[in-house]
């Protein structure tokens, strides 16, 4: 059987990116849409396929923000939206540039420069807050047997990559996660991850998937996020009766302490996302399921 992979990729360039603005919920720029159209070809080339073995199924996870949803819109796989995958919330500075923050609030700007890991935007979040709210996502990724492509945001992908690559917490906020690249993670037998970074070429776009690529997509199991799947009990996440997950490197200090069950204490559920479905997964009317997570009221930049 083929081994599953995890792909991490930032959304395509957004309108806010072109203006140097942080936060917000802007759509993609023209270059960002080029990335969205190029992403399927780049991803399909990374799916291991052999004539005598079925491919590992693929699902796509995005945040609830437009720039990730639009970036994933051309991918021919089932999609799941997580509120927990939304970008770090910039609070009162949502929609500002860092130059504006430095000019109007130099103390805040300097505090962030001194300790990006613990700095919390006024009325917003810190990297530590993001890491904590990502725990359900990490838990589900640990349990998944299918390949997953996460189309996300810089801070969120830094945290996820840091977890799987066992990066020290203090280094998380400065990890390089450039636009228009795939980061491919493949679990190894020793519990570590094999990592490869693949640039997505935007200068060789076609009008759509080639016939061979469509055939690859057809060979993948089309039902990876079944809407009508059996639901696990709401306490299945903490059931002691399941087999524990295999170790995945030295990450014991990564997940924050608290009421959320650690991945090493969890077992496999009776179906993909079954336990989360029993906790209120919602349909959004577009054939895409939405997973609730933290929701922080927005704030506009008034500086």
Strand fraction: 5-15%
Q: Topology as H/E string? A: EHHEHEHHHHEHEEHHEE
Compute the number of strand runs: 8
Main β-sheet description: 8 strands, mixed
Biggest sheet strand line-up: 6-5-1-4-2-3-8-7
Low-confidence stretches: 218-300
What is the terminal-to-terminal distance? 56 Å
Structural class: alpha/beta
Mean pLDDT: 75
Question: Summarize this, please?
Answer:
With 303 residues, the chain is an alpha/beta fold. The chain is 27% helix and 13% strand. The longest helix has 15 residues.
Describe the overall structure.
The protein is an alpha/beta fold and about 300 residues long. The chain has helices at about 15-20, 30-45, 65-70, 100-105, 105-115, 125-135, 135-145, 155-165, 210-220, 275, and strands at about 5-10, 60, 80, 145-150, 180-185, 195-200, 280-285, 290. Strands 6-5-1-4-2-3-8-7 form an eight-stranded mixed beta sheet. Helix 4 packs across helix 5 (about 105-115). Residues about 220-300 have low confidence and may be disordered.
Topology:
Elements (H helix, E strand, L loop, with lengths): L5 E5 L4 H5 L10 H15 L13 E5 L3 H6 L7 E4 L15 H7 L1 H9 L12 H7 L1 H9 L3 E6 L1 H11 L16 E7 L5 E7 L11 H9 L54 H4 L4 E2 L5 E3 L12
Parallel strand pairs: 1-4, 2-3, 2-4, 3-8
Antiparallel strand pairs: 1-5, 5-6, 7-8
Helix pairs in contact: 4-5
């Amino acid at each position: 059987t083929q081994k599953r992979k995890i792909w991490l990729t930032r959304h395509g360039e957004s309108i806010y990116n072109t203006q140097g603005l942080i936060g917000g919920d802007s759509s993609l720029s023209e270059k960002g849409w080029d990335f969205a159209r190029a992403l399927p070809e780049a991803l399909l080339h990374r799916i291991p396929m052999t004539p005598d073995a079925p491919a590992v199924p693929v699902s796509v996870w995005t945040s609830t923000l437009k720039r990730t949803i639009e970036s994933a819109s051309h991918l021919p796989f089932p999609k799941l939206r997580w509120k927990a995958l939304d970008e770090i919330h910039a609070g009162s500075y949502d929609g500002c540039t860092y130059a504006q923050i430095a000019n109007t609030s130099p103390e805040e700007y300097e505090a962030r420069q001194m300790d990006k890991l613990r700095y919390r935007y006024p009325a917003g979040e810190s990297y530590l807050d993001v890491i904590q709210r990502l725990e359900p996502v990490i838990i589900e990724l640990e349990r998944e047997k299918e390949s997953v492509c996460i189309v996300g945001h810089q801070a969120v992908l830094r945290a996820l990559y840091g977890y799987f690559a066992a990066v020290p917490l203090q280094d998380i906020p400065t990890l390089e996660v450039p636009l228009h690249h795939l980061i491919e993670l493949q679990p190894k037998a020793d519990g570590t991850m094999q990592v490869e970074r693949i640039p997505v070429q935007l200068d060789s776009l076609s009008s759509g998937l080639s016939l061979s690529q469509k055939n690859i997509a057809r060979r993948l199991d089309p039902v990876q996020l079944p809407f009508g799947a059996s639901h696990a009990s709401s306490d299945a996440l903490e059931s002691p009766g399941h087999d524990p997950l295999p170790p995945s490197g030295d990450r014991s200090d990564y997940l924050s302490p608290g009421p959320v069950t650690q991945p090493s204490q969890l077992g496999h559920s009776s179906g993909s996302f079954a336990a989360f479905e029993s906790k209120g997964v919602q349909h959004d009317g577009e054939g895409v399921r939405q997973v609730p997570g933290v929701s922080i009221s927005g704030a506009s930049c008034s500086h």
